[in-house]
Specification:
The chain is of the alpha+beta class and 247 residues long. The chain has helices spanning 2-5, 14-27, 30-39, 68-72, 84-90; strands at 49-50, 53-54, 111-117, 124-135, 150-152, 161-168, 171-178, 187-189, 201-212, 220-224, 240-246. Among the domains are: 2-90, no CATH class; 111-138 and 200-246, Urease metallochaperone UreE, N-terminal domain (HSP40/DNAj peptide-binding domain), CATH 2.60.260.20. 16% of the residues lie in helices and 28% in strands. The chain is elongated, with a radius of gyration of 31 Å.
Length: 247
């Protein structure tokens, strides 16, 4: 191709010739090839370049191995950057994602119910029936079939997180997120319970008796503590929130 596009030949193309020559220079040099794989066409012998020079004035970024000095000058608090996360989020994307994991101390979900009452229901006890997620009777909330254990997730090795590396104009970045297999729980059953499919929770019907106030206005809300779904891994249940409407 270099012979084909040589500018001294008839039908030659100087731009194509330079492109072919650059490709040959990169492919024939292991160091340049590795830099190209990491940074693309802006390799410049291993450093990102813009306009023929270093994008950061030729400064050697190896001295900022822990990035603490690099971002200290941007300030902190409101309007500033307290970490590398903030500086890239302000740029509108990319960078190093904040890891998200399942909060093991979080309670279960709240349940919201709307009940329509007549005048005769005021100043009386009313029984409400509703569906709720409760602890699985078969596995006692563990999520594992009887005779099987809870083990470390094979995808993340029990860390609850996975890493994904990608390239950008700033270099190579590692994105860390919750494991898609265990969703940050770190452990999974060897074999999932056939009743709850490994969730540790099952759908049940529940009845609850609530005292209705005498002087009640439509839209009145009653909160029943721990009347909601039980938390994952047998965590504390959420609340039942009942919005009362007068017919």
């Amino acid at each position: 191709m270099a012979h084909q596009y040589h500018p001294d030949k008839q039908g030659g193309n100087e731009a194509k010739f330079k492109e072919v020559n650059e490709a040959y220079q990169v492919l024939s040099d292991p160091k340049k090839r590795e830099s190209y794989d990491n940074f693309g066409s802006a390799y410049n012998d291993g450093a990102y370049s813009a306009g023929g020079g270093s994008a950061f004035g030729g400064q050697d970024f190896s001295e900022y191995a822990d990035f603490s000095d690099l971002f200290r000058g941007f300030g902190g608090g409101r309007g500033g950057f307290e970490s590398i996360f903030d500086i890239f989020s302000d740029m509108g994307g990319g960078g190093y994602a904040r890891p998200t994991y399942q909060d093991e101390s979080a309670k279960g979900e709240d349940i919201y119910m709307e009940a329509h009452l007549g005048k005769k229901d005021l100043s009386s006890n009313k029984i409400f029936e509703y569906g709720v997620l409760d602890k699985c009777d078969e596995c006692s909330g563990s999520g594992a079939e009887k005779g099987y254990k809870i083990v470390n997730c094979a995808t993340c090795g029990g860390t609850g997180q996975v890493k994904q590396t990608s390239r950008s104009a700033f270099g190579v970045f590692t994105q860390i997120g919750a494991c898609p297999k265990c969703r940050g729980r770190r452990k999974l059953p060897e074999r999932e319970c056939h009743i709850c499919s490994g969730s540790g929770r099952m759908n049940v019907k529940r009845k609850i008796e609530v005292r209705i106030p005498e002087n009640l206005e439509s839209g009145y809300t009653i909160v029943v503590p721990k009347g909601g779904n039980i938390g994952k891994e047998s965590q504390a249940p959420g609340d039942l929130v009942i919005s009362l409407k007068i017919k």
